Model the fold of this input.
Amino acid sequence: MKKTTATGGQVRNTRLRRIEGRHNALVKELRRAFARGELTSDGYCAIEGFRILEEAIRSSLRFRAVFFSESAAPRAEKLLSQLGAQVETLLLPDKLFSSAVPSDAPQGVAALARWKEFSLEDVLAKGKAGPLLAIAGVQDPGNLGTILRSAEAFGAGGILLGEGTVSPYNPKVVRASAGSVFRLPLARAKLSESLGWMKDHGLRLVGTASHKGTPLDQAKLSGPLAIFIGSEGPGLSRDLIKEMDEIVAIPQAPQVESLNVGVATSILLYEVRRQQR
Done:
């Protein structure tokens, strides 16, 4: 049963264990996970913000620990009621909390969360449920987060993250995905080595280009697909392009060099969804 106590005129939930020192093992792990933008040694990712934590709970993620700043403690009650009793919940002074998270204006809640990891085989098998996205070197976290959000919105079956692509555990990716990263089947892979697997799974390989290619509204995008998305600057490598069954381009004004990769992928996924309906 949860209890509250009055301290200095404030109401504090006694489930929150107060931590004062910056050398606390969990605080150090949270800080390190945010700094690296990767999983901890035991498979947990650092996330931040009330909305993201709510999405993580809704996505049935497991938590090692949830951290609240002292000033955000009054907002903690709703989240605490949704967390299992076994989850450790910590209360940090505002200065200590701010030192552990990357945001310039932190909302006052962060967590070490774990979601399901998928193998290459898992993701390729999902390609029959919807188009498979193969991301080749997208480095901007905001762009990758946008792609993941659109991928879930338009029914992508899974995501392969190729070499040079920003980590999906980067806090900016997690935030830009609005929680979609928690629910999409995704795996890291060497794309050139995965082409045979894709063909063996009956996927038609479709590459993307900024101007040269089949206009999007004329492309055949029905059936099982693997859609290759290139990096923000050079796009897909020549080695990948020559392996594609078709290259598609979104018609646009000739004076525009290219669309933002997140925007372009969203438009492409919408058209795939439209045709496959």
